[in-house]
Amino acid sequence: MSDSTFDLVVIGAGPGGYVAASKAAQLGMKVVCIDKSYLGGTCLNVGCIPSKALLESSALFYRAKKGLKQHGIGLGEVGLDLPAMMVRKAKIVQTMTKGIEGLFKGRGVTHFTGMGQVLAPGSVAVQGADGERVLSAKHILLATGSTPVELPNLPFDGKHIISSTEALTLEKVPERLVVIGGGAIGLELGSVWSRLGAQVLVVEAMEQILPGMDREMAQQLERLLKRQGLKFLLGAKAQTAAIAEGQVRLTIATGDQERVEACEQVLVAVGRKPCSAGLGLEDVGVAVNERGQVLVDAPGRTHVDGIWAIGDLGPGPMLAHKAEAEGVAVAEQMAGRTGQVNYAAIPAVVYTHPELASVGASEEAATAAGHAVAVGKYQFRGNARAHCMDDIDGLVKVVADAHTDQLLGMHILGPQASHLIAEGVLALEFGASAEDVARTVHAHPALSEVVGEAARAVAS
Ligand code: FAD
Ligand code: NAI
What we know:
By secondary structure, the chain is α/β, with parallel strands linked by helices. It has three domains: 5-147 and 273-343, FAD/NAD(P)-binding domain (3-Layer(bba) Sandwich), CATH 3.50.50; 161-270, FAD/NAD(P)-binding domain; 354-457, FAD/NAD-linked reductase, C-terminal dimerisation domain (Enolase-like, domain 1). 33% of the residues lie in helices and 27% in strands. It contains 14 helices and 22 strands. Strands 1, 2, 3, 4, 5, 6 and 17 form a seven-stranded mixed sheet that branches. A five-stranded parallel sheet has the order 8-15-9-10-11. Helix 1 (15-26) runs parallel beside helix 4 (82-107), helix 3 (48-66) packs antiparallel against helix 4 (82-107) and helix 3 (48-66) runs parallel beside helix 6. Bound molecules: flavin-adenine dinucleotide and 1,4-dihydronicotinamide adenine dinucleotide. 1,4-dihydronicotinamide adenine dinucleotide is lined by residues 151, 180-186, 188, 203-206, 211, 237-238, 269-272, 317-319, 348-351.
Protein backbone atom coordinates (compact mmCIF):
# COMPACT_ATOMS: atom_id res chain seq x y z
CA MET A 1 0.00 0.00 0.00
CA SER A 2 1.29 3.47 -0.84
CA ASP A 3 1.40 6.34 1.68
CA SER A 4 -1.90 7.65 0.37
CA THR A 5 -3.72 4.31 0.16
CA PHE A 6 -5.68 3.07 3.17
CA ASP A 7 -8.33 0.55 4.11
CA LEU A 8 -10.35 3.34 5.73
CA VAL A 9 -10.45 7.14 5.51
CA VAL A 10 -12.43 8.72 8.37
CA ILE A 11 -13.57 12.34 7.92
CA GLY A 12 -14.12 13.89 11.35
CA ALA A 13 -12.35 13.08 14.63
CA GLY A 14 -15.27 13.47 17.05
CA PRO A 15 -16.48 10.62 19.29
CA GLY A 16 -17.91 8.86 16.22
CA GLY A 17 -14.87 9.25 13.97
CA TYR A 18 -12.03 8.77 16.41
CA VAL A 19 -13.63 5.73 18.05
CA ALA A 20 -14.28 4.14 14.63
CA ALA A 21 -10.71 4.89 13.48
CA SER A 22 -9.19 3.39 16.57
CA LYS A 23 -11.45 0.31 16.54
CA ALA A 24 -10.77 -0.31 12.81
CA ALA A 25 -7.01 -0.07 13.42
CA GLN A 26 -7.34 -2.50 16.32
CA LEU A 27 -9.08 -4.90 13.93
CA GLY A 28 -6.07 -4.74 11.60
CA MET A 29 -7.06 -2.05 9.11
CA LYS A 30 -4.77 0.71 7.79
CA VAL A 31 -6.60 3.87 8.85
CA VAL A 32 -6.31 7.63 8.37
CA CYS A 33 -8.50 10.08 10.30
CA ILE A 34 -8.76 13.67 9.10
CA ASP A 35 -10.26 16.65 10.87
CA LYS A 36 -10.38 20.28 9.88
CA SER A 37 -9.85 21.47 13.43
CA TYR A 38 -9.33 19.38 16.56
CA LEU A 39 -9.20 15.81 17.81
CA GLY A 40 -12.26 14.95 19.89
CA GLY A 41 -14.77 16.96 17.85
CA THR A 42 -17.62 18.94 19.37
CA CYS A 43 -17.91 16.64 22.37
CA LEU A 44 -14.40 17.05 23.71
CA ASN A 45 -13.71 20.62 22.69
CA VAL A 46 -16.95 22.61 22.80
CA GLY A 47 -19.57 20.15 24.03
CA CYS A 48 -19.90 17.34 26.57
CA ILE A 49 -16.59 17.74 28.38
CA PRO A 50 -16.16 21.50 28.83
CA SER A 51 -19.85 21.80 29.77
CA LYS A 52 -19.53 19.05 32.39
CA ALA A 53 -16.35 20.65 33.75
CA LEU A 54 -18.23 23.93 34.25
CA LEU A 55 -21.28 22.12 35.66
CA GLU A 56 -19.08 20.44 38.30
CA SER A 57 -17.28 23.68 39.21
CA SER A 58 -20.45 25.76 39.33
CA ALA A 59 -22.24 23.09 41.41
CA LEU A 60 -19.42 23.17 43.97
CA PHE A 61 -19.55 26.96 44.07
CA TYR A 62 -23.32 26.94 44.54
CA ARG A 63 -23.12 24.26 47.22
CA ALA A 64 -20.34 26.03 49.09
CA LYS A 65 -22.38 29.25 49.02
CA LYS A 66 -25.72 27.75 49.99
CA GLY A 67 -25.43 24.38 51.52
CA LEU A 68 -22.73 23.28 53.95
CA LYS A 69 -24.05 24.66 57.25
CA GLN A 70 -26.32 21.66 57.84
CA HIS A 71 -23.25 19.41 57.56
CA GLY A 72 -21.72 21.41 60.41
CA ILE A 73 -19.18 22.98 58.09
CA GLY A 74 -18.66 26.70 58.28
CA LEU A 75 -16.89 28.59 55.51
CA GLY A 76 -15.66 32.13 55.19
CA GLU A 77 -16.80 34.22 52.26
CA VAL A 78 -16.98 32.07 49.14
CA GLY A 79 -15.38 33.77 46.15
CA LEU A 80 -15.53 33.10 42.44
CA ASP A 81 -12.37 33.03 40.30
CA LEU A 82 -13.92 32.59 36.85
CA PRO A 83 -10.60 32.65 34.93
CA ALA A 84 -9.29 29.80 37.14
CA MET A 85 -12.50 27.85 36.54
CA MET A 86 -11.99 28.28 32.79
CA VAL A 87 -8.32 27.22 33.02
CA ARG A 88 -9.34 24.03 34.82
CA LYS A 89 -11.89 23.32 32.08
CA ALA A 90 -9.29 23.91 29.35
CA LYS A 91 -6.81 21.59 31.06
CA ILE A 92 -9.35 18.76 31.14
CA VAL A 93 -10.04 19.25 27.43
CA GLN A 94 -6.29 19.25 26.71
CA THR A 95 -5.70 16.07 28.74
CA MET A 96 -8.50 14.24 26.94
CA THR A 97 -7.36 15.45 23.49
CA LYS A 98 -3.83 14.26 24.23
CA GLY A 99 -5.40 10.92 25.15
CA ILE A 100 -6.78 10.56 21.61
CA GLU A 101 -3.39 11.52 20.16
CA GLY A 102 -1.85 8.73 22.28
CA LEU A 103 -4.57 6.26 21.25
CA PHE A 104 -3.96 7.00 17.56
CA LYS A 105 -0.20 6.58 18.01
CA GLY A 106 -0.63 3.35 19.93
CA ARG A 107 -2.95 1.84 17.31
CA GLY A 108 -1.08 3.23 14.28
CA VAL A 109 -3.85 5.56 13.04
CA THR A 110 -2.56 8.32 10.74
CA HIS A 111 -3.96 11.78 11.53
CA PHE A 112 -4.13 14.67 9.05
CA THR A 113 -5.44 18.16 9.76
CA GLY A 114 -7.49 19.42 6.82
CA MET A 115 -10.87 19.74 5.20
CA GLY A 116 -12.16 16.49 3.71
CA GLN A 117 -14.29 16.07 0.64
CA VAL A 118 -15.45 12.91 -1.09
CA LEU A 119 -14.37 12.86 -4.76
CA ALA A 120 -15.75 9.42 -5.61
CA PRO A 121 -16.35 6.15 -3.78
CA GLY A 122 -12.86 5.19 -2.56
CA SER A 123 -11.36 8.66 -3.03
CA VAL A 124 -11.12 11.62 -0.63
CA ALA A 125 -9.44 15.01 -1.08
CA VAL A 126 -7.89 16.66 1.98
CA GLN A 127 -7.25 20.40 1.88
CA GLY A 128 -4.64 21.16 4.53
CA ALA A 129 -2.24 23.98 5.35
CA ASP A 130 0.35 22.39 3.03
CA GLY A 131 -2.01 22.03 0.06
CA GLU A 132 -4.25 19.28 -1.22
CA ARG A 133 -3.66 15.56 -1.16
CA VAL A 134 -5.85 12.77 -2.44
CA LEU A 135 -6.33 9.62 -0.38
CA SER A 136 -7.63 6.26 -1.62
CA ALA A 137 -9.37 3.71 0.53
CA LYS A 138 -11.73 0.77 0.35
CA HIS A 139 -14.01 2.44 2.91
CA ILE A 140 -14.89 6.09 3.58
CA LEU A 141 -16.50 6.96 6.91
CA LEU A 142 -18.27 10.30 7.22
CA ALA A 143 -18.36 11.52 10.82
CA THR A 144 -18.50 15.28 10.41
CA GLY A 145 -20.95 15.94 13.24
CA SER A 146 -23.16 18.99 13.64
CA THR A 147 -23.20 22.75 14.29
CA PRO A 148 -25.65 24.98 16.20
CA VAL A 149 -28.88 25.99 14.47
CA GLU A 150 -29.14 29.75 13.93
CA LEU A 151 -32.48 31.56 14.21
CA PRO A 152 -32.98 33.65 11.04
CA ASN A 153 -33.98 36.83 12.91
CA LEU A 154 -31.37 36.34 15.67
CA PRO A 155 -28.11 35.58 13.83
CA PHE A 156 -25.10 34.72 16.00
CA ASP A 157 -22.68 37.61 16.52
CA GLY A 158 -20.46 35.73 18.98
CA LYS A 159 -20.81 38.45 21.60
CA HIS A 160 -24.43 39.16 22.45
CA ILE A 161 -26.30 36.54 20.44
CA ILE A 162 -24.27 33.45 21.18
CA SER A 163 -24.22 29.68 20.73
CA SER A 164 -23.13 27.06 23.26
CA THR A 165 -19.53 27.47 22.08
CA GLU A 166 -19.31 31.05 23.35
CA ALA A 167 -21.46 30.27 26.40
CA LEU A 168 -18.65 27.93 27.51
CA THR A 169 -16.08 30.72 27.49
CA LEU A 170 -17.79 33.87 28.83
CA GLU A 171 -15.21 36.10 30.53
CA LYS A 172 -17.66 37.49 33.04
CA VAL A 173 -20.88 36.31 34.64
CA PRO A 174 -23.70 38.15 32.89
CA GLU A 175 -26.17 39.91 35.14
CA ARG A 176 -29.00 38.64 32.96
CA LEU A 177 -28.91 35.83 30.43
CA VAL A 178 -31.81 34.79 28.23
CA VAL A 179 -31.63 31.24 26.90
CA ILE A 180 -33.74 30.38 23.87
CA GLY A 181 -34.56 26.68 23.96
CA GLY A 182 -35.36 24.57 27.02
CA GLY A 183 -33.44 21.55 25.74
CA ALA A 184 -30.28 19.92 27.04
CA ILE A 185 -27.95 22.81 26.21
CA GLY A 186 -30.31 25.50 27.48
CA LEU A 187 -30.84 23.78 30.83
CA GLU A 188 -27.22 22.75 31.38
CA LEU A 189 -25.58 26.04 30.44
CA GLY A 190 -28.47 28.00 31.94
CA SER A 191 -27.74 26.14 35.21
CA VAL A 192 -24.01 26.92 35.03
CA TRP A 193 -24.50 30.68 34.71
CA SER A 194 -27.41 30.77 37.16
CA ARG A 195 -25.29 29.02 39.83
CA LEU A 196 -22.51 31.51 39.20
CA GLY A 197 -24.88 34.43 39.81
CA ALA A 198 -26.69 35.32 36.56
CA GLN A 199 -30.45 35.81 36.42
CA VAL A 200 -31.46 33.26 33.81
CA LEU A 201 -34.68 33.19 31.80
CA VAL A 202 -35.33 30.15 29.59
CA VAL A 203 -37.67 30.75 26.65
CA GLU A 204 -39.12 27.51 25.28
CA ALA A 205 -41.45 27.26 22.27
CA MET A 206 -43.28 24.15 23.50
CA GLU A 207 -45.48 23.84 26.59
CA GLN A 208 -42.87 21.76 28.44
CA ILE A 209 -39.10 21.86 28.77
CA LEU A 210 -37.27 18.86 27.26
CA PRO A 211 -40.19 18.08 24.93
CA GLY A 212 -39.05 14.54 24.06
CA MET A 213 -38.70 13.43 27.69
CA ASP A 214 -41.34 11.90 30.00
CA ARG A 215 -43.69 14.82 30.77
CA GLU A 216 -44.01 14.24 34.50
CA MET A 217 -40.21 14.06 34.93
CA ALA A 218 -39.64 17.20 32.85
CA GLN A 219 -42.25 19.08 34.88
CA GLN A 220 -40.61 17.97 38.15
CA LEU A 221 -37.23 19.15 36.88
CA GLU A 222 -38.70 22.50 35.88
CA ARG A 223 -40.09 22.93 39.41
CA LEU A 224 -36.71 22.15 40.97
CA LEU A 225 -34.83 24.47 38.62
CA LYS A 226 -37.30 27.26 39.45
CA ARG A 227 -36.46 26.72 43.11
CA GLN A 228 -32.81 27.31 42.17
CA GLY A 229 -33.73 30.65 40.64
CA LEU A 230 -34.11 29.90 36.93
CA LYS A 231 -37.18 31.41 35.29
CA PHE A 232 -39.15 29.86 32.44
CA LEU A 233 -41.40 31.16 29.69
CA LEU A 234 -43.10 28.21 28.00
CA GLY A 235 -45.03 28.36 24.74
CA ALA A 236 -42.93 31.41 23.88
CA LYS A 237 -40.75 32.40 20.94
CA ALA A 238 -38.08 35.05 20.60
CA GLN A 239 -38.82 37.45 17.78
CA THR A 240 -36.13 40.10 17.33
CA ALA A 241 -33.23 41.63 19.21
CA ALA A 242 -32.03 45.23 19.35
CA ILE A 243 -28.49 45.65 20.63
CA ALA A 244 -27.26 48.95 22.06
CA GLU A 245 -24.60 49.86 24.64
CA GLY A 246 -23.80 46.25 25.51
CA GLN A 247 -27.44 45.36 26.21
CA VAL A 248 -29.80 43.23 24.19
CA ARG A 249 -33.49 44.07 24.15
CA LEU A 250 -35.16 40.86 23.14
CA THR A 251 -38.77 40.79 21.99
CA ILE A 252 -40.54 37.56 22.93
CA ALA A 253 -43.99 36.46 21.77
CA THR A 254 -46.14 34.45 24.19
CA GLY A 255 -49.45 33.58 22.57
CA ASP A 256 -50.89 36.86 21.31
CA GLN A 257 -48.81 38.97 23.71
CA GLU A 258 -45.32 40.43 23.37
CA ARG A 259 -42.80 41.29 26.03
CA VAL A 260 -39.31 42.75 25.99
CA GLU A 261 -36.47 41.34 28.10
CA ALA A 262 -33.16 43.17 28.59
CA CYS A 263 -30.00 41.12 29.05
CA GLU A 264 -26.29 41.08 28.23
CA GLN A 265 -26.38 37.81 26.31
CA VAL A 266 -28.90 35.67 24.48
CA LEU A 267 -27.88 32.03 24.24
CA VAL A 268 -29.62 30.45 21.25
CA ALA A 269 -29.90 26.69 21.92
CA VAL A 270 -32.64 25.48 19.59
CA GLY A 271 -30.93 22.36 18.27
CA ARG A 272 -28.02 21.43 16.01
CA LYS A 273 -27.84 20.62 12.30
CA PRO A 274 -25.75 17.93 10.60
CA CYS A 275 -22.58 19.01 8.71
CA SER A 276 -23.43 17.37 5.41
CA ALA A 277 -22.99 20.36 3.08
CA GLY A 278 -19.73 20.70 1.15
CA LEU A 279 -18.76 17.04 1.53
CA GLY A 280 -19.43 16.25 -2.14
CA LEU A 281 -22.26 13.87 -1.25
CA GLU A 282 -24.60 14.80 -4.10
CA ASP A 283 -21.86 14.02 -6.66
CA VAL A 284 -21.38 10.47 -5.33
CA GLY A 285 -25.08 9.73 -4.82
CA VAL A 286 -25.21 9.68 -1.01
CA ALA A 287 -28.79 10.62 -0.06
CA VAL A 288 -29.49 13.39 2.44
CA ASN A 289 -32.95 14.18 3.89
CA GLU A 290 -34.56 17.63 4.26
CA ARG A 291 -32.90 18.08 7.68
CA GLY A 292 -29.46 17.50 6.15
CA GLN A 293 -29.09 14.05 7.75
CA VAL A 294 -27.31 11.40 5.70
CA LEU A 295 -29.66 8.47 5.16
CA VAL A 296 -28.36 5.14 6.41
CA ASP A 297 -29.42 1.58 7.01
CA ALA A 298 -28.80 1.19 10.71
CA PRO A 299 -26.08 1.34 11.70
CA GLY A 300 -24.04 3.59 9.45
CA ARG A 301 -24.35 2.06 5.99
CA THR A 302 -25.28 4.61 3.27
CA HIS A 303 -26.80 3.50 -0.01
CA VAL A 304 -23.42 3.82 -1.74
CA ASP A 305 -21.15 0.83 -1.29
CA GLY A 306 -18.06 1.67 0.77
CA ILE A 307 -19.40 4.99 2.11
CA TRP A 308 -20.56 5.03 5.73
CA ALA A 309 -22.01 7.78 7.95
CA ILE A 310 -22.35 7.92 11.73
CA GLY A 311 -22.99 10.19 14.71
CA ASP A 312 -24.71 13.57 14.54
CA LEU A 313 -24.46 13.45 10.74
CA GLY A 314 -27.00 10.61 10.58
CA PRO A 315 -30.51 10.19 11.98
CA GLY A 316 -31.20 9.56 15.67
CA PRO A 317 -30.28 11.34 18.88
CA MET A 318 -27.31 13.69 18.74
CA LEU A 319 -25.38 12.07 21.55
CA ALA A 320 -21.70 11.22 21.90
CA HIS A 321 -22.30 7.66 23.13
CA LYS A 322 -24.63 6.99 20.17
CA ALA A 323 -21.87 8.20 17.81
CA GLU A 324 -19.31 6.01 19.61
CA ALA A 325 -21.53 2.92 19.49
CA GLU A 326 -22.03 3.45 15.75
CA GLY A 327 -18.28 3.98 15.31
CA VAL A 328 -17.52 0.59 16.84
CA ALA A 329 -20.33 -1.13 14.90
CA VAL A 330 -19.27 0.19 11.46
CA ALA A 331 -15.59 -0.68 12.08
CA GLU A 332 -16.67 -4.22 12.96
CA GLN A 333 -18.81 -4.46 9.82
CA MET A 334 -15.94 -3.21 7.64
CA ALA A 335 -13.74 -5.90 9.17
CA GLY A 336 -16.31 -8.54 8.23
CA ARG A 337 -17.71 -8.92 11.73
CA THR A 338 -21.22 -8.33 13.04
CA GLY A 339 -21.64 -4.75 14.28
CA GLN A 340 -24.88 -3.80 16.00
CA VAL A 341 -26.35 -0.83 17.84
CA ASN A 342 -29.51 -1.26 19.92
CA TYR A 343 -31.24 2.06 19.22
CA ALA A 344 -34.01 1.16 21.68
CA ALA A 345 -31.60 1.29 24.60
CA ILE A 346 -29.67 4.54 24.21
CA PRO A 347 -29.68 6.55 27.43
CA ALA A 348 -30.09 10.33 27.48
CA VAL A 349 -28.98 12.48 30.38
CA VAL A 350 -29.44 16.15 31.17
CA TYR A 351 -26.73 17.15 33.63
CA THR A 352 -28.71 19.66 35.68
CA HIS A 353 -29.01 19.31 39.43
CA PRO A 354 -30.62 16.96 39.97
CA GLU A 355 -29.73 15.13 36.79
CA LEU A 356 -32.50 13.79 34.57
CA ALA A 357 -31.65 10.50 32.90
CA SER A 358 -33.85 8.30 30.80
CA VAL A 359 -33.80 5.23 28.61
CA GLY A 360 -36.54 3.64 26.53
CA ALA A 361 -40.11 4.88 26.28
CA SER A 362 -41.68 7.70 28.25
CA GLU A 363 -45.13 6.98 29.74
CA GLU A 364 -46.69 9.01 26.89
CA ALA A 365 -44.69 7.22 24.16
CA ALA A 366 -45.45 3.77 25.59
CA THR A 367 -49.17 4.59 25.70
CA ALA A 368 -49.07 6.01 22.17
CA ALA A 369 -47.38 2.79 21.00
CA GLY A 370 -50.44 0.87 22.18
CA HIS A 371 -49.23 -0.56 25.48
CA ALA A 372 -51.43 -0.82 28.54
CA VAL A 373 -48.91 0.87 30.79
CA ALA A 374 -48.03 0.06 34.40
CA VAL A 375 -45.92 2.64 36.22
CA GLY A 376 -43.88 2.32 39.40
CA LYS A 377 -42.38 5.32 41.20
CA TYR A 378 -40.23 5.92 44.25
CA GLN A 379 -38.96 9.20 45.67
CA PHE A 380 -35.34 9.82 46.64
CA ARG A 381 -36.60 11.33 49.92
CA GLY A 382 -37.46 7.76 50.94
CA ASN A 383 -33.80 6.72 50.63
CA ALA A 384 -31.38 6.91 53.56
CA ARG A 385 -28.27 7.47 51.43
CA ALA A 386 -29.91 10.42 49.68
CA HIS A 387 -30.52 11.95 53.12
CA CYS A 388 -26.88 11.36 54.13
CA MET A 389 -25.87 13.13 50.91
CA ASP A 390 -28.37 15.91 51.58
CA ASP A 391 -29.69 15.32 48.06
CA ILE A 392 -33.29 14.12 48.39
CA ASP A 393 -35.10 15.75 45.44
CA GLY A 394 -36.44 13.66 42.59
CA LEU A 395 -37.76 10.20 41.84
CA VAL A 396 -37.32 7.08 39.75
CA LYS A 397 -40.15 6.15 37.40
CA VAL A 398 -40.32 2.71 35.81
CA VAL A 399 -42.60 2.18 32.81
CA ALA A 400 -43.65 -1.40 32.05
CA ASP A 401 -46.25 -3.23 30.00
CA ALA A 402 -49.21 -3.94 32.30
CA HIS A 403 -49.90 -7.37 30.77
CA THR A 404 -46.41 -8.82 30.28
CA ASP A 405 -44.47 -6.75 32.87
CA GLN A 406 -41.82 -6.14 30.18
CA LEU A 407 -39.69 -3.11 31.04
CA LEU A 408 -40.36 -0.34 28.49
CA GLY A 409 -38.55 2.64 29.98
CA MET A 410 -36.80 4.01 33.04
CA HIS A 411 -36.62 7.67 34.03
CA ILE A 412 -34.50 8.98 36.87
CA LEU A 413 -34.57 12.51 38.23
CA GLY A 414 -32.16 12.61 41.10
CA PRO A 415 -28.59 12.63 42.36
CA GLN A 416 -26.17 10.74 40.13
CA ALA A 417 -28.94 9.78 37.71
CA SER A 418 -26.33 9.62 34.92
CA HIS A 419 -24.72 6.67 36.72
CA LEU A 420 -27.92 5.05 38.00
CA ILE A 421 -29.49 4.88 34.54
CA ALA A 422 -26.94 2.22 33.51
CA GLU A 423 -29.08 -0.32 35.37
CA GLY A 424 -32.10 0.58 33.23
CA VAL A 425 -30.03 0.42 30.03
CA LEU A 426 -28.73 -3.03 30.92
CA ALA A 427 -32.20 -4.23 31.92
CA LEU A 428 -33.64 -3.09 28.57
CA GLU A 429 -30.68 -4.59 26.70
CA PHE A 430 -31.37 -7.96 28.36
CA GLY A 431 -35.15 -7.72 27.79
CA ALA A 432 -35.85 -7.69 31.53
CA SER A 433 -39.23 -7.40 33.22
CA ALA A 434 -39.93 -4.87 35.96
CA GLU A 435 -39.93 -7.82 38.36
CA ASP A 436 -36.38 -8.76 37.27
CA VAL A 437 -35.22 -5.29 38.32
CA ALA A 438 -37.30 -5.46 41.52
CA ARG A 439 -35.76 -8.81 42.54
CA THR A 440 -32.22 -7.63 41.79
CA VAL A 441 -30.52 -7.05 45.14
CA HIS A 442 -29.24 -3.50 45.55
CA ALA A 443 -26.52 -2.52 47.99
CA HIS A 444 -27.56 -0.68 51.14
CA PRO A 445 -27.33 2.19 51.75
CA ALA A 446 -27.15 3.29 48.10
CA LEU A 447 -29.08 5.50 45.71
CA SER A 448 -29.67 2.48 43.48
CA GLU A 449 -32.16 1.16 46.06
CA VAL A 450 -34.56 3.79 44.68
CA VAL A 451 -34.42 2.00 41.30
CA GLY A 452 -35.30 -1.31 42.96
CA GLU A 453 -38.16 0.28 44.93
CA ALA A 454 -39.62 1.94 41.81
CA ALA A 455 -39.51 -1.38 39.94
CA ARG A 456 -41.19 -3.06 42.93
CA ALA A 457 -43.91 -0.38 42.85
CA VAL A 458 -44.94 -1.44 39.32
CA ALA A 459 -46.67 -4.50 40.76
CA SER A 460 -48.33 -2.75 43.70
P1 FAD B 1 -18.57 15.86 16.27
O1 FAD B 1 -18.20 15.64 17.67
O2 FAD B 1 -19.31 17.11 15.94
O3 FAD B 1 -17.23 15.81 15.42
C1 FAD B 1 -17.20 16.07 14.06
C2 FAD B 1 -15.81 16.48 13.65
O4 FAD B 1 -15.77 16.55 12.23
C3 FAD B 1 -15.39 17.87 14.16
O5 FAD B 1 -14.18 17.76 14.86
C4 FAD B 1 -15.23 18.71 12.87
O6 FAD B 1 -14.14 19.61 12.96
C5 FAD B 1 -14.97 17.64 11.84
N1 FAD B 1 -15.37 18.01 10.48
C6 FAD B 1 -16.57 18.48 10.05
N2 FAD B 1 -16.57 18.64 8.71
C7 FAD B 1 -15.33 18.25 8.29
C8 FAD B 1 -14.70 18.18 7.01
N3 FAD B 1 -15.36 18.48 5.88
N4 FAD B 1 -13.43 17.76 6.95
C9 FAD B 1 -12.74 17.42 8.07
N5 FAD B 1 -13.29 17.46 9.29
C10 FAD B 1 -14.56 17.87 9.39
N6 FAD B 1 -23.62 14.46 24.03
C11 FAD B 1 -23.64 13.54 25.03
O7 FAD B 1 -23.80 12.35 24.76
N7 FAD B 1 -23.48 13.91 26.33
C12 FAD B 1 -23.29 15.21 26.68
O8 FAD B 1 -23.15 15.52 27.87
C13 FAD B 1 -23.28 16.19 25.66
N8 FAD B 1 -23.10 17.49 25.97
C14 FAD B 1 -23.05 18.41 24.96
C15 FAD B 1 -22.89 19.74 25.31
C16 FAD B 1 -22.85 20.72 24.32
C17 FAD B 1 -22.65 22.17 24.70
C18 FAD B 1 -22.95 20.33 22.95
C19 FAD B 1 -22.86 21.36 21.85
C20 FAD B 1 -23.13 19.01 22.60
C21 FAD B 1 -23.19 18.03 23.60
N9 FAD B 1 -23.38 16.69 23.30
C22 FAD B 1 -23.44 15.76 24.31
C23 FAD B 1 -23.55 16.22 21.92
C24 FAD B 1 -22.22 15.62 21.40
O9 FAD B 1 -21.22 16.60 21.49
C25 FAD B 1 -22.39 15.16 19.96
O10 FAD B 1 -23.49 14.27 19.88
C26 FAD B 1 -21.14 14.43 19.49
O11 FAD B 1 -20.01 15.27 19.56
C27 FAD B 1 -21.32 13.93 18.05
O12 FAD B 1 -20.17 13.26 17.66
P2 FAD B 1 -19.75 13.18 16.12
O13 FAD B 1 -18.50 12.37 16.11
O14 FAD B 1 -20.89 12.74 15.32
O15 FAD B 1 -19.44 14.68 15.67
P1 NAI C 1 -32.53 20.34 21.79
O1 NAI C 1 -33.12 19.81 20.55
O2 NAI C 1 -32.19 19.42 22.90
O3 NAI C 1 -33.49 21.45 22.42
C1 NAI C 1 -33.89 22.56 21.69
C2 NAI C 1 -35.11 23.17 22.35
O4 NAI C 1 -35.37 24.42 21.74
C3 NAI C 1 -36.36 22.32 22.21
O5 NAI C 1 -36.95 22.18 23.48
C4 NAI C 1 -37.24 23.11 21.23
O6 NAI C 1 -38.60 22.94 21.48
C5 NAI C 1 -36.78 24.53 21.53
N1 NAI C 1 -36.96 25.48 20.42
C6 NAI C 1 -36.77 25.28 19.10
N2 NAI C 1 -36.98 26.42 18.42
C7 NAI C 1 -37.31 27.38 19.33
C8 NAI C 1 -37.63 28.76 19.26
N3 NAI C 1 -37.65 29.41 18.10
N4 NAI C 1 -37.91 29.42 20.40
C9 NAI C 1 -37.89 28.78 21.60
N5 NAI C 1 -37.59 27.47 21.72
C10 NAI C 1 -37.30 26.78 20.61
O7 NAI C 1 -31.25 21.16 21.31
P2 NAI C 1 -30.05 21.78 22.10
O8 NAI C 1 -30.37 21.97 23.53
O9 NAI C 1 -29.63 22.95 21.29
O10 NAI C 1 -28.96 20.64 21.98
C11 NAI C 1 -28.49 20.19 20.70
C12 NAI C 1 -28.12 18.75 20.74
O11 NAI C 1 -26.99 18.55 21.58
C13 NAI C 1 -29.24 17.90 21.29
O12 NAI C 1 -29.61 16.98 20.30
C14 NAI C 1 -28.68 17.19 22.47
O13 NAI C 1 -28.93 15.82 22.43
C15 NAI C 1 -27.18 17.44 22.40
N6 NAI C 1 -26.75 17.72 23.76
C16 NAI C 1 -26.75 16.71 24.66
C17 NAI C 1 -26.44 16.94 25.96
C18 NAI C 1 -26.47 15.81 26.90
O14 NAI C 1 -26.56 14.68 26.46
N7 NAI C 1 -26.38 16.06 28.19
C19 NAI C 1 -26.07 18.26 26.45
C20 NAI C 1 -26.14 19.27 25.44
C21 NAI C 1 -26.45 18.98 24.14
